[in-house]
Amino acid sequence: MAQPILSTAGVIKSFDGLVAVNDITYEVFPGQTSGIMGPNGAGKSTFFNLLTGYYRPQKGRVIYQGRDITHMHSHERVILGIARTFQLVSVFDSMTVLENMMLARVRYGRDYSSKLRFFFKNVHHRELEEECLQALDVLGIAEKAKIKTSDMSYGEKRELEIALALSLQPQVLLLDEPFAGLSLVDIAHISKVINRIKGQFAIVIIEHKISKLMDLVDTLCVINEGRLICQGDPQQVICDPEVSACYWGK
Ligand code: ADP
Ligand code: MG
């Protein structure tokens, strides 16, 4: 059987006595698209933050490609191939889509130092530009490369967030509520994008819009009150009595 690319073993994270993530053991496999659902405040985003290195667990381990990365900084994890969507705050409105992509790449990418030098000397860096254009093309927004992000709609900016993460050529892509606040049209577009990139690397999606999530994932898990309560085949997970109880009560 394939080895997981990313996994956790018994991770615990608490905030002032509140246990947000409680003993979660989880595996992500190469090429697999996995969903995480659970009520608000269940600990899903905190769990992502443990995977990306934004938080360190008080107990347990995070393993990536067989290597213990529990204490590794988030920027080092990005270089190794663990990318998450960037928040809108990290997009510079005065810059074009392509410039934002290139900046994200030089800030967070594997080849940081050499490309940073090129970028700030304003030397035309064709290879970098080409790679960023390709990432935009995957999302079907290459024609928007030269427009300023300030002129983009909210839906387009959310797409750009995914493009920024893709420009880092990740091995594992983590998407925290990619559909939040989007219209049905935008959700359909982003679903199409995820379907297009699916299988090329591992993707983990936290999402509340369960029916949309079900259309995308190979496997599903549910986190409730910090604990992973159910995981496996999406159809089976969704029918599990413990899962309905955590949403609707017993
Ligand atoms: P979810 O993403 O499932 O909605 P979160 O992981 O954001 O849940 O939060 C889980 C719990 O941890 C919540 O009770 C939340 O209030 C708490 N929490 C999250 N981040 C912090 C923090 N930085 N400081 C204190 N409490 C936090
Ligand atoms: Mg959250």
Structural class: alpha/beta
Please give the radius of gyration in angstroms: 18 Å
Q: Report the sheet with the most strands, covering strand number, pairing sense and barrel closure.
A: 6 strands, mixed
The spatial strand order of the largest sheet comes to 6-7-8-3-9-10
- The poorly predicted ranges are none
H/E topology pattern: EEEHEEHEHHHHEHEHEEHH
The total count of helices amounts to 10
Q: Which whole number gives the mean pLDDT?
A: 88
Q: What share of residues is helical?
A: 25-40%
Q: What is the β-strand count?
A: 10
Q: Report the principal-axis shape.
A: globular
What is the terminal-to-terminal distance? 37 Å
* Proportion of residues in extended strands: 15-25%
Description:
There is one protein chain. This protein has 250 residues and is of the alpha/beta class. The protein contains 10 helices and 10 strands. The longest helix has 14 residues, at 184-197. It is globular. The relative contact order is 0.18. Adenosine-5'-diphosphate (ADP) is lined by residues 15, 18, 20, 38, 40-46. Pfam families: ABC_tran. This is Amino acid/amide ABC transporter ATP-binding protein 1, HAAT family. Keywords: ATP-binding, Nucleotide-binding, Transport.
Which tags fit this structure?
250 residues; alpha/beta; 6-stranded mixed sheet; 4-stranded antiparallel sheet; 10 helices; binds adenosine-5'-diphosphate; binds magnesium ion; P-loop_NTPase; ATP-binding
